[in-house]
Amino acid sequence: MAVDAEAARPNPEQFLQLIRRQQRGRLKVYLGPAAGVGKTFAMLREGHRLKRQGVDVAVGLVETHGRAETAEQLGELPVIPPRKIEYRGVTLREMEVDAILDRRPTVCLVDELAHTNAPGGRHPKRYQDVEDLLRAGIHVITTVNVQHLESLYDEVERATGVKVKERLPDSVLAEADQIVNVDLPAEDLLDRLRAGKVYPPERVERAMANFFTEANLTRLRELTLSELAHLIDRRSRRAEADRAPALATDRVMVGLSSRSPNAPALLRKAARLADRLDAPWYAVYIQTPAEDLTRIDAATQRQIGKNLELAQQLGGIPMTFKGPDVASTIASFAREYEIRVIVLGKSRQSTWRRLMRGSLLEAVLAKTDGADVVVVDV
Predict the structure, then answer these.
(1) Is the CB of residue 314 less than 8 Å from the CB of residue 267?
(2) Is 1 a domain residue?
(3) The UspA domain covers which part of the protein (predicted)?
(4) Which of 86, 167, 197, 320 is deepest in the core (most CB within 10 A)?
(5) What's the rounded Cα separation, in Å, for the pair 7 and 245?
């Protein structure tokens, strides 16, 4: 059978991506549903196994949180001394990125990937420090809990009643070379909590009354397994796509205005929808004459900027698109960028509900052709 060499040859962008991946370090993530399931323990055990095999392993940062059994696991692993920062009368330990880059271990162990750094560091977030290590060719093994994924913020809050402050972009996990699920039944984790193996005794009662309930832990385990299954499926589909000729893909857009209700929740839902479709997506600020910057106060302008920044963190492409009215501008963007899915938000606020029931939704449907319109509850 004759083979078309041109059709089988990877395109230049694919080849460049392969080169970059070879130059970068590899990222392995121990993913769990909650603190205390054993992620750090598992990471340190792997560090010891690699060291016994002759691999140059160093600890960039490990958070023991006073757990004796975790501290014992450090054993003889070489630790790169952390940087100490005085902040509001408290001495904080942060990863010393420059020292790690100078030391250049083959593998670096870095705990709590979603951690927010103290002011004055190289980056605001630890995952950004880890990206510096990966770019330098250092392999990283790290840990994270599922509730720290940005796109799950609203779902975790609804399920547990807790607003998770430390979050990281889903793209960080999606780019990991290996993800290992560290699981523990809710009953066993609660037993560990009562025994003081997760938090100090003075924090146990409050933890069990709030975040660490059996219902919450069960839901977080479900989210972890679901996220892991999706990541594995996505990786499989992308591997198939790399072997096959490139095909046209769906594109998703979500329209925003200064009056968009609960825009962050809308963006997270759009991001997860696009991720499930394995499709690029756009967060489009629809700038009509009513949205002219001369008519919008500074606080509203800052919020628009934050929304577009969040879209970028979630893997979307933030854009501003001008037009005479919302519906026709959405339709124009959809035609120009060949959008197949348009996401609109439906709020519980009465004014937006009336708007969605009436002219806006109907006008978008009337003006678009060949695109599905998805209305999500935010």
Answers:
(1) yes
(2) no
(3) 250-376
(4) 167
(5) 7
